[in-house]
Amino acid sequence: MKNVESNHFDVIVAGAGTAGITGAAVAASRGLRVALVSTGPGSFVLGAGCVEVQGIDRNTPSLEDAIGFFRGFTELAGCGFRGGLDETRLLPTILGSFQTVSLAPFYMWNGDPSAASQVAVVGIRGLSTFDSNYAAERLAYHASKLDRGAKYTAHEIELSVEEGTFPGTLQFGNRYDRDVYFREELRDALKPIAAKANAILLPGILGLKSGQIEIEWLENQLGCLVCEMATLPPSIPGMRLFNRLEARLRKAGVEIFAGFPIQQVQIENGHFKGVLLEAPARPLHLTSETLILATGPFSGRLLGASSFSVNRDLRPLDSTGAVIADNLYAAGAILHNSTARGGNAMAILTGYASGMLAAGVGVQYAQG
Amino acid sequence: MEKTQVVIIGGGATGAGILWDLALRGISAILLEQGDLANGATGRCHGLLHSGGRYVVKDAEAAKECVAENRIIRHIAPHCVEDTGGLFVECRQDDPKFFEQWFESCKKIDLPTERLSADAALALEPNLPTDILGAFTCPDAHIDVFLLTQSNIESAVARGAQFKTYCAVKGIDIENGRVKGVRYLDTLTGEEGYIACEIVINAAGGWAQRVAELAGVEVPVRCDKGTLLVLNHRLSKRVINRCRKPGDADILVPSGPVCILGTSSITVPGPEGLTVSEEEIQHLMELGAELVPALAEARVLRIFCGVRPLYVPPSVSGAGGREISRGFALLDHEATVKGFVSIVGGKVTTYRMMAKAVCNLIAEKLGVNVPCTTHEVLLRPGNDAAALRAAHTLLPLPVVEKTHRRQGSNLARIVSAIQARPELAEVVCECELVTRAELEFALGTETSLPAKTISDVGRRTRLGFGPCQGTFCGFKAMLAGYQTGRWNAAEASRQFECYLDQRWKGQSWIHQGKQVEQLYLSHDLFGVAYNFHDQEGR
Fold this sequence. Notes:
A: alpha/beta; seven-stranded mixed beta sheet; B: alpha+beta; 16 helices
């Protein structure tokens, strides 16, 4: 393939959610020149990127391969996912409920009530979106209903805040990344609690960029499991996951155009040509051999319809059932217009399949 | 056993106005409301303080009442009124004869109006269609119906009156053809109570017929559903009316940071279980866009509906919703049950006049010789300058203004709470600028209008009324209710589930646009990410 123009790529991936990132990673791993175009960190700011396989047909071809690829890629990015298709864990939430997941980043994974018997739920004074008493009481209630033996106790620690600000997860996350004194302050505040517990549950604050080394440092220092919970958006664990994955994509040679909404998807005679991005001075024109459209729910208008279906090769179809463009694949939540349970598993699966298709590797994919 | 002279059934504007009027006359009273204050038609209207223009052609009596009450309410409750002014727009497609008729009728009843050329009208309201023929001004205004109802109650409570929310009337005790008392059930605690009284006033609006049945009396009320759309910002500075025979979607009222378009008029069997169809919304949006074209592009935040409890005298029982007078009827059931009175029909703008009529009758029955003074006694005492000054040193200007408008003299309590605990200055609802201090005050025990649910907090403070529709601030309000000890953890969770259900319901009728994404966000967060609550209505 000829890549003479700097704005010409083998693949353009639109959307930097779970599907888009997986698709870009797969295409890059196959040696393609990839552009990742996005308006921002997708749905990562809303949660933690945990994967549920509820509602997914386990016999879907290439599901195992897709999950295997995703685990390998996240591991390389320093935010490895634990678990697998056959595992089920119950992860605690700030509302004191348990979310059923099959895969989760390592810093969430140990929240399962079977992982520890004495769990300390730790709030931070002044952090108004989390209340450890409320969470501990509800977790204890739900754990006993589920017949899990874990005991939950509520604690509160005080952390310094920048002058004139209210305590917030963004501020703490930022400082955890950059400020070694802050990390030590957090460790010292947690130490007496860690002495009497085998797991600590924290609202997500352990860095927007930190990786395994920085987070496991805290666990090692405390000698007890540490697990985060996603807070109300922006969710720090989710933003961290995004930042780590994006950094890894850059390393793999993917070019990233972040902050630019797509103005137009150019299709001529049933063939995708390029995209126009809304950039400050004038539209930015990128062209490629293939487009992977992973722009999330509510973005069907890019193809001129509020929703559309796809064929077995993830090619979007128009209202008459004809393929819209022979070199255009759709992946992720744009396919089902909602992010119901199992959304991330679908995103990984379709992201993986579209990346492989873009690389010319035929994968068997049938919509579940 | 509790004892009082008068029991009022219904906590809308009318019931609250009666409680205040009686308090001023020194007559003891207890108000019972089955839900929260302003939970029925009062809280589900446009929030329009009518100038009278809407009724002037067809119902001069109703229009005259509006003219008079409009002036009085501006005087007694300035904190509830946003003096937007209003326009009656002459649209090209409407009957020009009606314009002249409208103008003449206004002159006859002294409704202050001025005729504007199309250019002048467009200069005032650039969002009107460019092909309008002209417009008339009028003194329409926005009225905060929640605040109005609460202010009446608060003032009455300060003079010794009582009220009970979430208390449904279960029976009216009648002995020898005379009212003896009222049995009620506290729907939150499950406790039953009895109030002995001499007089029962039925001010239950859409529920008036059911209340009357408890006394074995018939009160024919027609429930006429009106659907309203909340749009995410103000598309006009003034209230925009279409100058024609009253019809659907011909009033747009700017209200705080949003504006409200309505309504429809559909007869329904009762005041509960209302739904809105997609066609109805489409119909309202299309008509609304004829009046303000920018509406077609606007984001609909939520859709709500309420019922106008129209009084149907036997003579007009075949008439349609719009033909029945918006006037009110005072029914003295003396002949069948002594001490039982119903007040039905009417509208928010004339709530005070309705209360006056009832209270005149009650005063006469009780032999109390004190005239009505609600037209001159201010509902809220003057400003607390010291508290206001202190607030300006603690909070940003827009927060001070909104908090002061909502809380009036309670501002002093909010200020001292922040002085004691500076973290209470945190703004928890960013759309309506509600601080944690105000939130905790609404949930606390110091207020005379304690909130019992998260939606109550919304009606006290407007928390959750903005674009996020409580997705973020509703959660914080739940935690605040837990932290202040109003609810235990299980109760707090249950409260939040109910709250999400209500907020989701109001958005589930919206089928396109940005608000659908907002709703999905809420569903995904609380339904999927937190596995907290099932997503109904999806």
